[in-house]
Design the sequence.
């Protein structure tokens, strides 16, 4: 953990392991998927201890408060110590993950091309 008092947002998201690369973090910031203290942010925006971040990744949303700063990516245990996650946000995300896990998949998962009968069944399920 660095002894600095401010770190670029894209570097912090990368160091906290929300994104695999800084480029992916910068792309998410540019797409408006990251909010800092309720406002849309740019990737060079400095993040300070105590800032609240809202991070949307796919169908999931993380609400975290910055606990420590780091410019270097380390092991997952150290990365998890960089933030505190909102308890209610975690509960909502876990509930959504469970719903997505048990939801039936509407895509064809068989081998090869479906037969005419299977294609009609798929279209019937999709409502086409």
Sequence:
């Amino acid at each position: 953990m660095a002894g600095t008092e401010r770190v670029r947002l894209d570097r912090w998201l990368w160091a906290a392991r929300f994104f695999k690369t800084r480029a992916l973090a910068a792309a998410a910031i540019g797409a408006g998927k990251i909010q800092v203290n309720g406002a849309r942010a740019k990737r060079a925006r400095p993040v300070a201890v105590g800032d609240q971040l809202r991070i949307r990744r796919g169908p999931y949303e993380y609400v975290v408060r910055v606990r420590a700063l780091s410019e270097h990516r380390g092991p997952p245990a150290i990365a998890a110590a960089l933030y505190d996650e909102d308890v209610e946000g975690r509960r909502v995300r876990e509930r959504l993950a469970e719903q997505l896990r048990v939801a039936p998949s509407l895509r064809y998962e068989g081998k090869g091309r479906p037969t005419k009968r299977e294609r009609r069944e798929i279209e019937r399920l999709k409502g086409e």
In short: The two ends are 54 Å apart (CA to CA). The chain is about 40% helix and 20% strand. The first helix runs from residue 9 to 15. Helices lie at 9-15, 22-30, 76-80, 87-102, 116-126.
